[in-house]
UniProtKB/TrEMBL annotation:
Start-end of Basic and acidic residues biased regions: 1-19
Spans annotated as Disordered: 1-25, 51-70
Tagged with keyword Nucleus: yes
One example GO MF annotation: zinc ion binding
Primary subcellular site in the record, as a coarse category: cytoplasm
Organism: Carex littledalei
Protein name in UniProt: Zinc finger protein 706
GO cellular component: cytoplasm; nucleus
Length: 70
């Protein structure tokens, strides 16, 4: 068995190796959000969510086609 300083060093190495990657969920969310609503500027993840957003929030407007967005 490892004793003393070697044991402490091994525990530190294992703790660093097993530690989760640091980062903000907000940053990860910003990467995933790609499609903006041109009317209210809400960021959505994909075209299907944009169509659903239009049907619930902007029922009098037609959703933009996939080619007209960036």
């Amino acid at each position: 068995m490892v004793r003393g300083k070697q044991k402490i060093d091994a525990q530190k190495r294992n703790a660093e190796k097993n530690q989760k990657a640091k980062g903000s969920q907000i940053e990860a969310r910003a990467v995933g959000l790609k499609v903006p609503c041109p009317i209210c500027k809400v960021q959505l993840a994909n075209e299907k969510q944009l169509v659903d957003h239009y049907s619930s929030k902007h029922p009098k407007e037609k959703p933009p086609t996939a080619s007209s967005s960036d």
